[in-house]
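We treat protein structure as text, and this decision shapes the records that our systems exchange. Such a record has a labelled line for the sequence and another for the backbone structure tokens. The record that follows is passed on verbatim for readers who wish to inspect the format:
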Amino acid sequence: MKTRIQQILTELECVQESFLGLSDDIWLNIEHNDSQAVQKGSEFKVAFNEKLNEFNRISAEISNLIEKYTNVHSEEGCIVQKGSPEHERIIRELDSSEHHTIEEDFTFKRPYGFVFEGQAYKDVKNWQRLYRLFCKQLAKKNIQLFKEFINSTDAKTVRGNVFFATDKKVLRKALEIESTIYAEGNFSANDIRDRIKSLLNAFKIAPQEFSIYLREDRNAME
């Protein structure tokens, strides 16, 4: 039963990401020189966002209810000590698949793992978990620089909405990074890609230090 519960919790998160990806895809395919099309698209986005927020709220309540009653939580992903035989095995396993850069389009694609500065992570079920693991590693690497970034203008939208907060209630989908730091997780795959690029730039880490492996590529090999 534990495996089935973890699968359901993961599927709920994946559905949220797929909806966000669909919304982005529809908006990008609108003819923006057509005023009528833009108006219809805007009306769709407003209505869609309202329904999606409601869906996310209900999904979170269902997930919390299941986790509280069963004491079963969704899997975080596999992290193995760097340099260990198991870590080298995971590196070889990932390298047997096609790796992707942070510059690509990940709409409707699912991650399987990633390698960041030589550290391998696998069994990553969705983009929210990949983003959380990545942020946790950056915070561990340099917590002071991480705090400086999350308080900078690069960690806010032009309207002042924040990508990180010390109070999870101000975020739509709070991902715990540290005991007092939360990241916004209500993003599509490409939004998360852009957040990762921004963080790599803030930490002056070359994009080549971050490689992504997709579940679709792995499944094609099996």
Observations:
- Strands lie at 78-79, 99-100, 111-116, 119-122, 164-165, 174-178, 181-184, 210-214.
- DSSP finds seven helices and eight strands in the chain.
- The longest strand covers residues 111-116.
- The helical segments are 2-28, 35-70, 85-95, 127-141, 143-150, 189-202, 215-221.
